[in-house]
Design goal:
By secondary structure, this protein is of the alpha/beta class. Helices cover about 40% and strands about 20% of the residues. This is LysR family transcriptional regulator.
Length: about 300
């Protein structure tokens, strides 16, 4: 028999996330005494001190409390899933679904997911958070996100990737470049060319090493952390770039043409996947999102299946 209640766990999570018992009491519409008593009873049941509460500094978690918070968030989420499963079998998707999306993928994947997945499920509270792969996965492992859309090569320990769409890097060139008409480009042909680098952590730690392993040590002349700025610099003839994402438009923001060509050499792929904590069971909402992603985004190449929208 359990020695604690879900209500006690809920009050603890609220107080931990809001930093004080008073803030948790206000959010839960109960008295501060009720929240304090619930947390004390929870600590007594677990026989461990979860927090230190000081009048001036609010509530601070102990190391044991920080560890328990991760498990408590998951417990509450599973309890909510169980309640919905018991009362709404066969009904439409409902409840909270918090998804992280790697920033350079967001423009390609978030709009069709909102239009084709979120809007038809009116009772589903779907939210997206954009950021770096590491940041999003750490949020997910901390219980703040349900799943993340990232590149497989970016996966952290403790995260399992479920394939969605193939991704291989391509060469982006100005339209009048000497290699623009080539069917595919050997990396050796770019050895003396200036490069415009998409200067973000995943490119520096994943794409560049794989390109160097394939035999090209690029001459980086210009850098930008903005995807479209890189395309604009290439369109201006300031160098080539190596990118994972391939927009359907062959124009920069200035209206200047660019040309994308495949790489002739063998270069490591970095497929798009839906990441989920390895030690947790997928909720029905995450499973439904994965199924929708696989039906909407073609497994090879890029783009979407417009018949799904």
């Amino acid at each position: 028999m359990f020695r604690y209640t879900l209500r006690q766990v809920e009050y603890f999570v609220e107080a931990a996330e809001r930093g004080s018992v008073s803030a948790a009491a206000e959010a839960c519409h109960v008295s501060q005494t009720g929240v304090s008593l619930a947390i004390a009873q929870l600590e007594q049941s677990l026989q461990v001190q979860l927090s230190v509460r000081q009048r001036a500094k609010g509530m601070t978690l102990t190391p044991a409390g920080q560890s328990f918070l991760l498990e408590a968030r998951q417990l509450l989420r599973q309890a909510a899933d169980l309640e919905r499963s018991g009362t709404a079998l066969g009904a439409a998707l409902s409840g909270r679904l918090a998804i992280g999306c790697y920033s350079t993928l967001a423009a390609f994947m978030v709009p069709p997911l909102i239009c084709g997945f979120a809007l038809p499920n009116a009772d589903l509270d779907l939210t997206f958070t954009e950021g770096s792969s590491d940041e999003l996965q750490e949020m997910m492992l901390a219980g703040k996100l349900d799943a993340v859309i990232v590149h497989r090569r970016h996966l952290l320990d403790g995260v399992e990737g479920h394939f969605v769409q193939e991704r291989v890097p391509h060469v982006l060139l100005p339209a009048d470049h000497r290699l623009a008409s080539a069917a595919a480009i050997a990396l050796a042909d770019l050895r003396d060319e200036p490069m415009v680098l998409l200067d973000i952590p995943s490119v520096r730690t994943n794409l560049l090493p794989s390109i160097r392993a394939a035999g090209l040590d690029p001459l980086i002349r210009w850098r930008s952390g903005d995807f479209e700025a890189v395309r604009a610099l290439v369109a201006r003839g300031l160098g080539y770039s190596l990118l994972m994402q391939l927009p359907p438009s062959d124009l920069s923001y200035e209206g200047l043409p660019v040309v994308a060509r495949p790489i002739a050499d063998e270069v490591e792929r970095s497929d798009v996947c839906l990441g989920h904590p390895t030690n947790q069971r997928m909720t029905k909402r995450v499973e439904a999102l994965l199924d929708y992603c696989r039906a909407t985004f073609p497994p090879k190449g890029q783009g979407i299946n417009h018949s799904r929208l």
